C-alpha cells in the first residue's frame, strides 16, 4: 500500500499572483525595499557597534544623537564628503566600477524575498513581495556570484599585492562555501517541491503527515526543525558567503592590511563596499527566514491568533526574525576569533560538502518512500543506511589516519627541536658560544674567567 500524504493546501501568494501589478505599485515596492535596506544598514551598523561595545564593557557610540543613533549618519556624510584619493597606478575604470558591481547585485537579490501575504495597497490587491520566479532561490545564488566579481576586480584593479591576495581569497572562499550553501537548499526543494520563495513559505504554513506501515508520522512546519542539518550548514555558510568573522579572511588585517579594499580610502567608494557587505548580510538572513524559519508567518504561540498571518501584521514578524538573525551575526563576531585560511578551506571542502551530500542522500531516500511500494521501501532504507554508514566509516577512518599523522609529525618536530638544541652541529638552530664577554652598563666589560 502506497503511503498517503496529508498536507494542507498552500496559503499565501503563489507564482500565479505575480506579474499583474500596475507599474506604479511595482515602483512603490522597489523604493520601499531600497529605503528599507538603506535604513537597515544605518541602524544595523549602530546596533552592531553598540552591542559589541556592551559585550566588551564599553559605551559605544553615544555622541551623535540620542544614544548615538545618528553616528552612522554622521559617518556616511563624512565618507561622502571626504576627499577621494585615487592611487596613480590603478586601473581607474575597474577601480571605480568594482564597488558598484558589489552593491547592485546585493540590492537585486532582495527583490524575491516575501515580506507578507497579499494585501490591499491603495485599493490594489498585491503580494508584499517585489517579484517571484520559478527559480527564485537560484537567482539569489547568481547575484551572490556576480558580487564576487566586484571583490576580485577591486583587488586586481588596485595593483597592490595585498589587495590581489584578498580578492583571490574571496573568490576561492565563495566557490567552496557557495557549493555548500546550494547543497543545503536541495533538501528544502525536495520537501517543498518548488524553488519559488513565496511557495516555499506557503509550504511551511502547516506541518505534514504521512503513513508508513499503518503508523502516522507528523512533521513540523518550519524546515529549520524538519531539516535541521541543512539549516545548520546554511547558517555556517552565511558567514563564509558574507566574509564575516570567523570567515573574514579576504579582509584579514593581520596579514593583508585591509584585504581587497586596501587601496580604497575612506570615501564614497569605501562606503559602497561596506554598504554591499551589510546588504548581503540582510539578504542571506532574509533567505534563511524564508527557507527555514517560516518566512513572514508568525511563530508559535502568536500563530494561535487568527489574525496573526493576515494583513500587514506579517511584516512585523518578518522584521523581528530579521533582527534576531542579524543579532546572531553580531554575537558570533564578538565571540569567535578568525580561523586560518587552510582551516577555512578544509572545513568547507572536507566537512560541509560531504556532510551535505550524505544528508541529501538520506532526505531523498525518505522522500522516495512516499512513492514506492512496501516491498521497495525496505530496500531503499537499507541501501541508504548502508551507503551512509559506509561514507561515515570512510570519513572517520580518513580523519583518524590524518590525525595520527599530524600527531606523529608534531612529535617528530618536537624531538628534532630538542636534538638541535642539544647538538647545534647537527644542522639545527645556531647557539651563541658561552664564552663571549658580557657587557654591563655603558661601556663596562666583564672578562670571562680563565682568559688572559
Q: State Rg.
A: 28 Å
Kindly state the number of beta strands. Answer: 7
In percent terms, what proportion of residues is strand? Answer: 5-15%
Class inferred from helices and paired strands = mainly alpha
**Largest beta sheet: strand ordering:** 1-4-5
Protein name: NADH-quinone oxidoreductase subunit H
Keywords: Cell membrane, Membrane, NAD, Quinone, Translocase, Transmembrane, Transmembrane helix, Ubiquinone
GO molecular function: NADH dehydrogenase activity; oxidoreductase activity, acting on NAD(P)H, quinone or similar compound as acceptor; quinone binding
Family: Belongs to the complex I subunit 1 family.
Describe this structure in words.
With 452 residues, this protein is mainly alpha-helical. The protein has one domain (5-343). Helices cover 60% and strands 6% of the residues. It has helices at 23-55, 71-81, 92-109, 136-157, 161-192, 197-203, 223-226, 228-241, 253-256, 268-292, 313-335, 341-368, 374-422, and strands at 5-6, 116-121, 124-128, 209-212, 215-218, 438-440, 444-446. The strands form 3 sheets. Strands 1-4-5 form a 3-stranded antiparallel beta sheet, with no helix packed on it. It has a two-stranded antiparallel ribbon with strand order 2-3. β4 (209-212) and β5 form a beta hairpin.
Short description:
The protein is mostly helical and 452 residues long.
Keywords for this entry:
452 residues; mainly alpha; three-stranded antiparallel beta sheet; two-stranded antiparallel ribbon; 60% helix; disordered N terminus; disordered C terminus
Amino acid at each position: 500500500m502506497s503511503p498517503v500524504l496529508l498536507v494542507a493546501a498552500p496559503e499565501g501568494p503563489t507564482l500565479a499572483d505575480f506579474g499583474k501589478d500596475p507599474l506604479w505599485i511595482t515602483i512603490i515596492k522597489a523604493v520601499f525595499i531600497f529605503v528599507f535596506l538603506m535604513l537597515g544598514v544605518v541602524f544595523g551598523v549602530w546596533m552592531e557597534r553598540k552591542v559589541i561595545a556592551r559585550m566588551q564593557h564599553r559605551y559605544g557610540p553615544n555622541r551623535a544623537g540620542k544614544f548615538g543613533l545618528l553616528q552612522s549618519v554622521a559617518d556616511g556624510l563624512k565618507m561622502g564628503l571626504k576627499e577621494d584619493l585615487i592611487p596613480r597606478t590603478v586601473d581607474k575604470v575597474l577601480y571605480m566600477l568594482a564597488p558598484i558591481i558589489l552593491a547592485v547585485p546585493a540590492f537585486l537579490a532582495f527583490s524575491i524575498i516575501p515580506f507578507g501575504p497579499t494585501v490591499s495597497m491603495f485599493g490594489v490587491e498585491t503580494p508584499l513581495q517585489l517579484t517571484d520566479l520559478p527559480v527564485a532561490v537560484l537567482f539569489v545564488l547568481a547575484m551572490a556570484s556576480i558580487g564576487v566579481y566586484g571583490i576580485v576586480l577591486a583587488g586586481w584593479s588596485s595593483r597592490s599585492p595585498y589587495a590581489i591576495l584578498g580578492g583571490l581569497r574571496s573568490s576561492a572562499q565563495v566557490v567552496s562555501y557557495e557549493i555548500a550553501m546550494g547543497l543545503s537548499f536541495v533538501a528544502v526543494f525536495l520537501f517543498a517541491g518548488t524553488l519559488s520563495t513565496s511557495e516555499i513559505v506557503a509550504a511551511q504554513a502547516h506541518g505534514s503527515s504521512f503513513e508508513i506501515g499503518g503508523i502516522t508520522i507528523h512533521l513540523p512546519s518550519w524546515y529549520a526543525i524538519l531539516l535541521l542539518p541543512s539549516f545548520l550548514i546554511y547558517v555556517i555558510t552565511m558567514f563564509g558567503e558574507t566574509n564575516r568573522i570567523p570567515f573574514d579572511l579576504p579582509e584579514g588585517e593581520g596579514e593583508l592590511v585591509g584585504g581587497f579594499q586596501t587601496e580604497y580610502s575612506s570615501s564614497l567608494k569605501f562606503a559602497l563596499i561596506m554598504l554591499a557587505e551589510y546588504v548581503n548580510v540582510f539578504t542571506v538572513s532574509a533567505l534563511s527566514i524564508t527557507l527555514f524559519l517560516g518566512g513572514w508567518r508568525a511563530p508559535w504561540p502568536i500563530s494561535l491568533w487568527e489574525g496573526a498571518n493576515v494583513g500587514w501584521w506579517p511584516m512585523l514578524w518578518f522584521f523581528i526574525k530579521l533582527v534576531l538573525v542579524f543579532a546572531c551575526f553580531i554575537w558570533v563576531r564578538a565571540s569567535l576569533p578568525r580561523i586560518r585560511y587552510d582551516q577555512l578551506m578544509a572545513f568547507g571542502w572536507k566537512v560541509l560538502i560531504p556532510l551535505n551530500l550524505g544528508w541529501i542522500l538520506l532526505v531523498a531516500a525518505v522522500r522516495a518512500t512516499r512513492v514506492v511500494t512496501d516491498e521497495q521501501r525496505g530496500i531503499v532504507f537499507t541501501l541508504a543506511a548502508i551507503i551512509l554508514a559506509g561514507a561515515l566509516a570512510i570519513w572517520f577512518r580518513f580523519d583518524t589516519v590524518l590525525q595520527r599523522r599530524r600527531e606523529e609529525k608534531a612529535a617528530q618536530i618536537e624531538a628534532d627541536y630538542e636534538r638541535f638544541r642539544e647538538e647545534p652541529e647537527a644542522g639545527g638552530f645556531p647557539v651563541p658560544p658561552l664564552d663571549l664577554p658580557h657587557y654591563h652598563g655603558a661601556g663596562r666589560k666583564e672578562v670571562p674567567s680563565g682568559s688572559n
